[in-house]
């Protein structure tokens, strides 16, 4: 029988420590919507989304109320649009029509984001892939809820440097097209390496072509819970006890995700895909991964020892979470976005955290350089260089890496940008002034790394 | 059996249990277990109930109890028990 203290522990996590189910994301395959006419493709995409996801928001809210745990976001991920639109789109504007259809469907369904305006070009781009990529700035500027991602490399294929170079320009163009709103278009655009097919978190979510027709994936979060437990019982304790506590807490958090995922899948009549157990911070006070790093013993993230602390945290979260769910997937680990985490923002303001240190941190955590505002005059080649660096880390270490960087039009180092809501606010960070233009100008791709002799 | 956990937290006052259980009786919800403590005038109660034969949908029961709590100046939450079982039992 459940005890009073267990019940109050759970409720305290929910009511005081921001434990929540961050997202129920329905993955939907749109492969069967492809047609040779843009209009027909748009119509069948819209119809399929409404048919499958009609009850998504209502079901998520019901589950939230019945179990007493907030289900914050209800979202949709779709087959990479470059594949779906390949047979009908003749110019980038055709893809933009598809993006607007997705936006319309998202608004009608009440989901706050729909991800999968994407191209997977790890080794090379088809004409449709390139057209989709070239349509991203316009698509991000004219839609609200559509998220875009481009996978430019993988451990098996190497890095498509032509796509990297193009993405440097596309990121800049997207920033320029949404200049009036602090270049917010770039907050909905992420460049990945080794992107997973079943990630429920935005902006990188898409429903890979290896997936079934529709599936329910769930992302849980709770950095506040981990932080509070460490503050209450782990100050000054040895690493063994610290790790044990993080593992136990991750287990508990993930169990809630597993329950909600199974329940949502059952009620929506779809298979349950995966639980993504990520510590995903929000700008809310106390809901911060940076605070956990401080609790481990750093004055600020960015101090010496940060990479080790983050590696420990990331690994314990995975170890606790894997035990709690039969199907763990997606990104799973700790996210270190800057604008979405008050502790990270403070660290940047204090001068403790730089892009270079963040890059080192991405070697050991779940994703990459995330929600980083940089000066608007950063050259496209430097952005491509940053993307290439992250992709190289992912490729060599067989992990997912990503870049979501915002060269904010008209802003310089030290200025602030405000994205609002979950996207938060951020100080503009400095980028190395030295050029990589000649390297980025080279055509072709970086070969896949050798896998024996690993050391 | 459809087990749910009702928690009541707030300043102690006359009739908390009476009013809560009167509502449950009317809704045909069976009380399986009650445990309760008062620490420094602070009332903390947990009820395990069976909603299998409830006359109203679970969501309505939960909303009614929350409202009853408000009228008494308390926080009453009614949650399906699985969330606690999953979290604390392997």
Describe what this molecule looks like in 3D:
The complex is a heterodimer of chains A (455) and B (90). With 455 residues, chain A is α/β, with parallel strands linked by helices. Chain A has a domain at 218-372 and 411-445: Anaerobic Ribonucleotide-triphosphate Reductase Large Chain, CATH 3.20.70. In chain A, 44% of the residues lie in helices and 18% in strands. Chain A is built from 15 helices and 14 strands. In chain A, strands 1, 2, 3, 4, 5, 6, 7, 8, 9, 10, 11 and 14 form a twelve-stranded mixed β-sheet that branches. In chain A, helix 7 (161-177) crosses helix 14 (380-397). The N and C termini of chain A lie far apart (50 Å). The model of chain A has no long low-confidence stretch (mean pLDDT 93). Chain B has 90 residues and is α+β, with helices and mostly antiparallel strands. Chain B has one domain (3-88): Alpha-Beta Plaits (2-Layer Sandwich), CATH 3.30.70.260. Chain B is built from three helices and four strands, in the order βαββαβα. Chain B has helices at 16-26, 58-72, 82-88, and strands at 3-11, 30-39, 42-50, 74-80. Chain B has a four-stranded antiparallel β-sheet, with helices on both faces. The longest helix of chain B has 15 residues, at 58-72. Chain B is globular, with a radius of gyration of 13 Å. The model of chain B has no long low-confidence stretch (mean pLDDT 92). The A-B interface holds A 1-2, 4, 6-11, 62, 65-69, 252, 255-256, 258-259 and B 5, 7, 33, 35, 37, 44, 46, 48, 58-59, 62-63, 77-88.
